Amino acid sequence: MPHLHTFQNIEISSITLSDEWNLHPFLPPDPSSRLRQSIQTIGLLHPIILKKSPGNRHQLLCGRNRLRSLQSDRHPPTLINALILDEGIEARRLLHYILEDQLLSGTLSPMEKAYFFKYCLEHMELEEAANYFFPILEENVQPHMILRVLLLLDLEAEIQKSIHLGETGEKIALELRQLTPDDRLTLHRIFQELELGGGKQKRLLALSTDLAFGQDKTITALLAEPDLTLILDHPEMNRPQKASTLLAILQKRLSPQSNTAEEIFQKTVHKMQLPAACTICHSPAFEKDEVYVTLRFDSLTEVENQLDGLKSLATGKEE
Predict the structure, then answer these.
(1) Which of 130, 52, 54 shows the shortest CA–CA distance to 94?
(2) HEC states along 54-109?
(3) d(Cα 248, Cα 24) in Å, to the nearest integer?
(4) Could you tell me the end-to-end alpha-carbon distance of the chain, in angstroms, rounded to an integer?
(5) The last residue of a domain, from among 73, 106, 139
(6) H/E element holding 15?
(7) For 22-66, what is each residue's pLDDT tens digit?
(8) In degrees to the nearest 10, what's the CA dihedral of 275, 279, 280, 285?
(9) Which of 138, 273, 282, 318 is deepest in the core (most CB within 10 A)?
(10) Residue 300: domain span
(11) Do the beta carbons of residue 62 and residue 48 sit within 8 Å?
């Protein structure tokens, strides 16, 4: 591919900002203090990318935070050395520049992919975008994955941000998308407040959805009930305690019979006063009456010494 760019010193005042090619519109506008400090200390190591525009103007393509870091300096420069793309550059090649610039920071997040392919499909067909860009991403060519990741664009900015930061997984995000805006924001804010990992996010989502559906109410209304808000606002519980208590209450509400059976089972086992080396478990969800006894031995030799008694127990069970 021939080079369609030059490096030039241009006036910062000639740069125009827009979200036309922005892969991060969900992030706050201000750059991080770490980036500002780095640029102010050792300068701009990674040039911004611009495209020539009519009237001696330049449209920003990549480097919004880098530019704002320069502008936030006490004595901001009037000139900046930038990579300038030709005004008539083909959209596919322009997108290639944007992708390569982003890859310098690491693998694209699901949200970065979503916005990148959104811009791709504004200028090319799905198959062309997949065939051209997936090899650059070092991924198998899967056009349907583009359509899947584009669904994330329907989510609110705060959820998009947490997906980008890895706080909310793509699968959970797609499940949230199926809820009403109020319900998914309610759940997402609890995810954030309690710092739930993926497994607990999935469990809270499933329990809340099933309970709300069964009671013909919204998830927002369900989680606003006094006994649940009391947990979320509890002044003495830490986040893990709040999460465990909330999930336990929701589970108990969803399966009251199973919870009652569990309580009776545990009380009965406790009364047996079994030694620490012995544990008893019931079948999953009490589907069967049988129970499973586990005995812990310190060595295989000890098992051999108790073999006759174990065989007698097993034989007696069979009879």
Answers:
(1) 52
(2) CCCEEEEEECHHHHHHHHCCCCCCCEEEEEEECCCCCHHHHHHHHHHHHHCCCCCC
(3) 37
(4) 80
(5) 106
(6) strand 15-16
(7) 999 998 878 888 888 888 788 788 899 999 999 889 999 999 988
(8) 150
(9) 282
(10) 273-318
(11) yes
Is residue 81 in some structural domain? yes
Over residues 67-77, the pLDDT tens digits come to: 888 888 778 88
Does 50 map to a domain?
A: yes
| Type of residue at 209 | T
Where among 57, 87, 106 does a domain terminate? 106
In the β-sheet with 79-85, what is the strand arrangement from edge to edge?
5-11, 79-85, 49-53, 57-62, 15-16
The reported pTM is 0.78
Say which residues have a Cβ less than 8 Å from residue 229's Cβ, sequence separation at least 6: 223
What CATH number should be reported for the domain holding residue 102?
3.90.1530
* Cα within 13 Å of Cα(238), Cβ side: 1
DSSP letters spanning 254-312 = H-HHHHHHHHHHHHHHHHHT--TTEEEEEPGGG-SS-EEEEE--S-HHHHHHTHHHHHH
Residue 155 has pLDDT above 50, yes or no: yes
Beta-strand pair 278-282/291-295 = antiparallel
Residue 239 lies in a domain: no
Q: CB of 61 within 8 A of CB of 21?
A: yes
* Dist. CA 144–CA 225, nearest whole Å: 41
79 assigned to some structural domain: yes
Looking at this protein, which amino acid is placed at residue 133? F
Whole-angstrom Cα distance, residue 38 to residue 54? 33
**Six-digit token pair at 104?**
């310098």
